[in-house]
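Suppose you are handed a protein chain with no further information: no name, no annotation, nothing but its sequence. What can you learn? This example shows the usual starting point.
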Amino acid sequence: MTDQAQAVIIGGGVGGTSIAYHLTELGWTDIVLVDRAELTSGSTFHSAGLVGQLRSSVTLTRMMMYGVELYRRLAAETGTDPSWHEVGSLRLASTPARLEELRRQAGWAKTFGLPLELISAAEAQARFPLMTTDGVLGAVYLPTDGWLDPSGLAQALAAGARARGARIQTHSRVVAINTARGRVTGVEVERRGGERQTIAADVVVNAGGMFAPEIGRLAGVTVPIIPMAHEYLFTEAIAGVTPDLPTMRDPDNLCYFREEVGGLCMGGYERNPAPWSLDGVPPDFNGKLLAPDWPRFEEIMAGAIRRVPAIADAGVNRMINGPEGFTPDNEFILGESEVRGFFVAAGFCAHGIAGAGGIGRQMASWIVEGEPELDLWKMDIRRFGAQYRSQAFTLARTTEVYQTYYDIHYPNEERLAGRPLRLSPAYPRLVELGATFGEKSGWERPNWFAPNGAGHEDLEALRPRGWAGQHWDPAIGAEALATRQAAGLFDESSFAKIEVGGPGACAFLQGLCANDVDVEPGRIVYTQMLNRRGGIETDFTVTRLGPDRFFIVTGTAVGNHDLGSIRKHLPSHGSVDVRDVTSSRACLGLWGPRARDILAELTKDDISNDAFPYLTAREISVGFVPVLALRVTYVGELGWELYPPTEYGTALWDLLWDAGQGHGLVAGGYRAIDALRLEKGYRVWSSDITPDETPFEAGLGFAVALDKPTTFVGRDALVAAKAAGPRKRLRCLVLDDPRSVCLGNEPVRVDGEIVGRVTSGGYGFAVETSIAYAYLPPTVAIGSRGEVDVFGEWIGFEVAREPLWDPAGERIRW
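A reasonable first move is to predict its three-dimensional structure. Written in structure tokens, the prediction is:
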């Protein structure tokens, strides 16, 4: 029994025990882990235990690779054996599209030094003799993958944590989470005999698995997880099955396999998933399974027999049907919530065993150091907006994710569930104009307008090869070129908007922003917020509206992230107020060489360059509409972002659209914006710039004011980094083949050596070339030659001086 701790961890599965293990490794010994029953009595005990390393993101792959390093040493270190079997893994391709995916993975693996081999069907069969090669076009083999005993892993991690001082209390159900002034202060626990216990702590970690949503509600925090019933079975012994058999996944047949005591463990992901316990997990559901659902398993069984015919005649020892927590985007939920000190590590989506080591390490770093070692944005709990308070919306998204678990997910793929939801005031007009919509953070946003592509057969000839041409339309090029030549009108109402006000607002922002935001009212500053390492945590514009009032505009998807990052530093004395004002203003972007001509027809305000220069803001009237006009651009052309109160948004669209008809105005979508920003060299946070890169490495040193009178977060690291020189530089690559378009993460080779990976890429319609950005060693100079692996083919490139479009910046300052 204890009444105080540095941290309380709720949940004794692989997530909670890994966090305890890694916290104690960092020196926090006053740790208490509580579990409502016994360790591993949630989803951990019924996991299949497969561990694969190569994933869809840099961060997740690094986490998985660390996990394998950890699992190799745990038995010797802790005296508890997690039964790690490093037998390698196979992944099969039974369609041309899947084989293309494997080729991409093979290139992707090179950037990590993973020994992934692209092999033939016959070579795969030599490693897994029971499989048939019918329809198999190829496979990849990774010898360092494997599988383990999930319960053994949790017990080994718990043993390691205990050895360094952590205490573990089983049969201790958390019944309340105490908070005060927006931060956690501890938990209340009910012991087996009904005894109540209060544990005071400044850090509480919700690692409750499928119980995480109800634990979150105790603190007023939404954790969007749906338990899904996941099935797999164990066969009796099968001739030819040996302990060194690699694991095998056949996604085209929806199934996976591994060895188990001379037989096979076989499961998969069916198209008709079974959500479970939507009204709450029963209080006594500890160490339990669900009844087998053989009809639902038939689809997986049929695929498994097609690939491994011996399954048909093998006896079945037992069927496992156990609920596991899935999230709406199939990514982990990690990080500090809006309640300070209350962290979440849940929603492991059936790959939590592989990720457990990395999850524990990153969460421990986040708790102890205030930030994780890696860029965890795609797993950050702050990525979920208010719409996920709705279980119905969460269920729709999560069901779609499970149904398509093994599908090929092409870049720019759009989810369909739960749409449409958040609509801008211009939405009806966009529908009338034939918009093809995408979705981000619940917002419906035009990707392109199909009618704009009519009559552009020349652009159709530029359709990128392979995956990059899947979600593509010639309208993208037509809209980009029209914006360069005349003008484009873009609905950007989904931009996240934050107001910071109060007598302490300026000093507060000066301490957070790398650039100098203490400017005259009406000035706009582009800046970043940094972490202690000098890495880029946020990226936005700050407009000073008055002495004590600032207007921040950031990306649609990162609004919650940036708002949370700002609020984390709020002073306690109340001199600063931070508000999310996204819904209060629409936003229309008007850009192009004819933008001023169009706007001038609608306003009496002087919008000449002398009266309204670049990077300034003014309140103007456009027709009858009051507008906050910001002279900024993300496409590299003259123009404005126009912010009317939301109720005026439709009227503003109509005014601009009608006035633009005589000037060649087109409606543009977000895919055109991306092509335009690539030509201009504008960065995207979370791909081109992340918490792992400094502004100097990213080519954004111009947005850093080391000499401003106020120090800021990360300044010391930047001073040291500038003195030491850059470790790498973001470079613009111009590919030799215009139809070979990079999607991100492709390996980059110079002088025969892998030196980096692509951060983002696309086709520049005005400069007529395929463009990619990549971090390269500082020794790789402008004009250097190299190659990019685009789906198994090495495409030549030249390192170009950027920006490719309007290098002097004249067009944005007309």
